[in-house]
């Protein structure tokens, strides 16, 4: 004989006249009181589910998720989870022994979890991104070594556009688990840099003055003072770095081209040589004499 659930008699005692036995489930007698309790908890569960869906929907819309299909999918998952939890509580409260059912459900859920592990990982990562707002639509981030413009953020993946107008679908888990550089996290200011190498024979003080004057004349730079640095004594040149602030990281490639052209013109007008790699070959005296011998004469 199965052991009756001790919770059920308590309800029967509190609801006199409703202890009429209707049928049996899992060794537990189901009475009219049991059905009333299940129905009451189920009604409360439905109400809580609707309120929770409305609250989450408003929150996600405020966080930038406007895709109706993804909203419906997310809210449907929440609805099913809430209903399963609520009905489980209802059956347990009413004294129905559904241990075997939940054990089978747990095994099924475990198998399903292994099957959709990556999908679930990206789903959870999407929720984290929507809540934290560390990355949001219209942001400019660096992914896979190149800047991309975030166009749309979904529950599973984020759609971004490259500088070449190519669309990239990025799984949300990669944005959460990896280090991502967000150029527009707090503001849209971006430090634009370029380097130039000049000949060792150049007057380095004059080089610094020319580079500073050139970049100060750039109309699109921000008011912050440009930075001019001598960064390296390379094999064929002395390398300088020039940097300014701009207010749009997405224009970095075009602005760098304009700055490079201005540096080229400024150094050319000042008669400062932009160095390039050169190779000097020195021959041994014996090799030179052999080449000058009559046998090698034309």
Element layout with pairings:
Layout: H1 7-14, E1 21-25, E2 28-31, H2 32-62, H3 68-93, H4 99-115, H5 117-132, E3 140-143, E4 146-153, E5 157-162, E6 167-171, H6 172-177, E7 181-182, E8 190-198, H7 204-216, E9 227-233, E10 238-246, H8 252-269, H9 285-292
Antiparallel strand pairs: 1-2, 3-4, 3-7, 4-5, 5-6, 8-10, 9-10
Helix pairs in contact: 2-3, 7-8
Characteristic terms for this protein:
10 strands, 9 helices, 3-stranded antiparallel beta sheet, 5-stranded antiparallel beta sheet, alpha+beta, disordered N terminus, 298 residues
Give a nutshell description of this structure.
The chain has nine helices and ten strands. Helix 2 packs antiparallel against helix 3 (68-93) and helix 7 crosses helix 8 (252-269).
Low-pLDDT stretches: 1-13
How far apart are the termini?
117 Å
Order of helices and strands: HEEHHHHEEEEHEEHEEHH
Q: Shape from CA axes?
A: elongated
Largest sheet: number of strands, sense, barrel closure? 5 strands, antiparallel
Using DSSP, what is the number of strands? 10
Total helices: the number is 9
Mean pLDDT: 79
What does this structure look like?
- With 298 residues, the chain is α+β, with helices and mostly antiparallel strands.
- The model is unreliable at 1-13 (pLDDT under 50).
- It has nine helices and ten strands.
- The termini are far apart.
- A hairpin with a 3-residue loop joins strand 4 (146-153) and strand 5.
- The strands form three sheets. It has a five-stranded antiparallel beta sheet. A three-stranded antiparallel beta sheet has the order 8-10-9, covered by helices on one side.
- Helix 2 (32-62) packs antiparallel against helix 3 (68-93) and helix 7 (204-216) crosses helix 8.
- It is elongated.
């Amino acid at each position: 004989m199965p052991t009756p659930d001790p919770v059920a008699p308590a309800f029967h005692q509190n609801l006199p006249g409703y202890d009429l036995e209707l049928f049996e489930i899992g060794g537990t007698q189901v009475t009219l009181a049991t059905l009333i309790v299940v129905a009451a908890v189920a009604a409360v569960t439905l109400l809580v589910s609707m309120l929770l869906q409305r609250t989450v929907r408003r929150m996600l819309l405020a966080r930038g998720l406007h895709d109706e299909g993804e909203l419906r999918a997310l809210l449907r998952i929440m609805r099913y989870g809430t209903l399963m939890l609520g009905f489980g509580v209802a059956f347990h409260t009413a004294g129905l022994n559904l241990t075997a059912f939940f054990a089978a459900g747990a095994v099924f859920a475990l198998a399903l979890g292994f099957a959709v592990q990556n999908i679930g990982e990206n789903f959870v990562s999407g929720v984290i991104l929507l809540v934290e707002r560390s990355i949001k639509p219209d942001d400019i981030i660096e992914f896979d070594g190149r800047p991309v413009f975030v166009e749309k953020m979904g529950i599973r993946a984020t759609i971004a556009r490259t500088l070449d107008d190519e669309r990239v679908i990025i799984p949300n888990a990669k944005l959460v688990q990896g280090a991502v550089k967000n150029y527009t996290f707090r503001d849209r200011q971006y430090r634009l840099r370029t380097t130039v190498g000049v000949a060792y024979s150049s007057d380095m003080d004059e080089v610094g003055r020319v580079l500073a004057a050139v970049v100060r004349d750039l109309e699109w730079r921000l008011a912050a003072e440009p930075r001019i640095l001598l960064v390296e004594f390379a094999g064929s040149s002395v390398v300088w770095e020039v940097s300014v602030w701009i207010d749009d990281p997405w224009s970095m490639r075009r602005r760098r081209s304009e700055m490079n052209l201005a540096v080229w013109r400024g150094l050319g007008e000042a008669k400062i040589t932009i160095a390039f790699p050169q190779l000097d070959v020195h021959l041994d005296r014996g090799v030179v004499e052999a080449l000058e011998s009559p046998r090698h004469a034309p």
